[in-house]
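hey so i finaly got around to running the thing on VOC family protein from Amycolatopsis echigonensis. pasting the sequence first so u can double check i didnt mess up the copy paste, my clipboard has been acting weird all day
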Amino acid sequence: MTGNWPGRRCCPPENWPRAPADRDDCRPARPGLHHAKIPVADLGRSREWFESLLGLRAEIEFRDDDGTVRGVAYLPLGGLRIALREDPPRAAALAGWDPLALAVPTRADLDTVVACLDERGIKHGPIIRATLGWLLSADAPDGLRVRFYTEEQHG
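ok and heres what it spat out for the 3d tokens, dont ask me to read them lol
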């Protein structure tokens, strides 16, 4: 079965690779996402961006041996913890990439996000009709593209 993307192939679940029968007991009972760790070049600047835009609250700060904070983990946002870790080379390598898509309920909520981005002078693209819902992309301080995707689907 071919999906919506040229050159990509979607397989129905019955065709997905399976673990050997004797290994079924190794699978977690209910796998889920625990956290997403994002590399950043400047932790202070990125903290300001993520905290002010998303309302994140720090849960844990990670310090190196001299006491300098090099990372932070936030209280869960919609069930997912987001962590930032200072790592300039990896942050530079991910510039322009979009590994994080945050869910918003409706298309109208994207208008609210646009207003917040504009108020803060944050570069973003237009709201577009995506595969299932609507999508908005914004650039975090190091060029990482953060997407806001609606749970509401178009007809």
